[in-house]
Amino acid sequence: MEQRQDCGLLIKQINDELRKNANNALRSLNMTLTQLDALAALNPAPEGQRSLKELEQILHVAQSTAAGIMVRLEQKGLVESFGDSADRRIKRVRITPAGIQCLSIALHHRAEAEEQLLSGLTETERDIFCTLLKKVRDSL
Predict the structure, then answer these.
(1) Contact between residue 76 and residue 69 where contact means Cβ atoms under 8 Å apart
(2) Which of 35, 74, 83, 140 has a Cα-to-Cα distance from 9 of 20 to 30 A?
(3) Tens of pLDDT, residues 85-132
């Protein structure tokens, strides 16, 4: 009888490979996957802006990490930071037009990676796979 695979290990291996491939694809844009996630969190927000605290929570990172991500994106001209008009202690970050353009290209790379990930599955299997992934996520 075949022993059941360690699902956690398989998920980690898939995640590691996806992150490596994504970071390689984003290298041509001088971006990382984490920076892409930050731009993707800003873009749909009202006026393309959020507080640094909101970004910490969305990205699940420490304040210092979120600040570092934003500094690097600001150096690239993809975001701009400023104080909140109502409370200068609050730092806000806004995606720039260059950031929106970079995000669009990066999301195209992400869609290609997703297609490659699911290429071995039929449409029905893709639906089942996504349903099962959500079920596992929601149970945690």
Answers:
(1) no
(2) 35
(3) 888 889 999 999 999 999 999 888 888 888 988 999 999 999 999 999
C-beta separation of 113 from 25 below 8 A: yes
Residues 57-88 as b or e (16 or more Cβ within 10 Å = b): ebbebeeeebbebbebbeebebbbeeeeeeee
Q: Are 26 and 109 in contact (CB under 8 A)?
A: yes
The Cα 138–Cα 29 span in angstroms is: 33
Q: Where are the domains of the chain?
A: 7-138
CA pair distance 106, 117, nearest whole angstrom: 16
Give dist(CA 106, CA 71) in Å, integer.
19
pTM confidence score: 0.79
The CA-to-CA distance between both ends of the chain, in Å, stands at 30
Q: What is the CATH number of domain 7-138?
A: 1.10.10.10
Amino acid symbol at 82: F
